[in-house]
Amino acid sequence: MIEMTDVYKTYSNGVLAINGINVKIDQGEFVYVVGPSGAGKSTFIKMMYREEKPTDGKILINGVNLAKLREKKVPQLRRSIGVVFQDFKLLPKLTVYENIAFALEVIGEQPRVIKKKVLDVLDLVQLKHKARSFPNELSGGEQQRVSIARSIINNPGVVIADEPTGNLDPDTSWEIMNIFEEINNRGTTVVMATHNREIVNTMKKRVIAIEGGKIVRDEARGEYGIYD
C-alpha cells in the first residue's frame, strides 16, 4: 500500500526534515506516527499525499511513485487518498451535504450516486440530521466528522490524518477515534500523526516514532513514548 525507500527531504532553507527513511505499510494497517515537535512527522505525512516532494528516494502509493508523479496527475492521486486535517478545512459557504458532495461533483459523478454515497457516509459519522447545516453551526467535533466523511466519500484505500484530534476535547477525541477505527475495520489503511499519548497507549496499534527525521522505533502494538 505505502512504501518509502531511502527517502530524504531537505527544505530550501537547508533544514533536513527527513533523513533516510525506509518503511512499508500494508493494506488494512492502522499506524500512528509519533515523535517530538520538529521531528519530521508532518513532512512524513505530507509526502504521502504529495503536499511535499522528497528531495531523494522513492515513495510508492499503490505502486505509483510519488517522487516522479507529474503535477497534473496529483489531483487524480488525491482522489484515491483521504486526508483529514487538524483544522477541518471545510468550505464555509457550503452545507455539510454540499461539502461532502463536492468531491464527487468535480469528477462528474451522477446526482443519484452522489446522494446515496453522501447519505451513507453521513450515517457512518452520525450526522444525517446536520446535512443542511453550515460549518459555523457545528461544534468542532461535528466539523471533524464532516471532514472525515469527505475524506472517505471516494472509498479511498488509505486515509491519512494529521493531528485530527488536536483541537478537540478528550471525549470528542474518542468519538473521532471510534470513527477512524470503524473505517479501518472496513479495510481502509489509516496513517495518523498525533500527539495524543492516551489514545495511542490505549488503542495499541502499530507505532512509528520519528526523531531527527529518522524512524527510531517501529512497533506492532506500540506506545507513545516520552516526549516534551
Automatic annotation (TrEMBL):
GO MF annotations, alphabetized: ATP binding; ATP hydrolysis activity; transmembrane transporter activity
PROSITE patterns listed in its UniProt record: ABC_TRANSPORTER_1, ABC_TRANSPORTER_2
Domain of life: Bacteria
Function: Part of the ABC transporter FtsEX involved in cellular division.
Entry similarity comment: Belongs to the ABC transporter superfamily.
NCBIfam families membership: FtsE
UniProt-recorded name of the protein: Cell division ATP-binding protein FtsE
Taxonomic lineage: Bacteria, Bacillati, Bacillota, Bacilli, Bacillales
Gene, per the UniProt record: ftsE
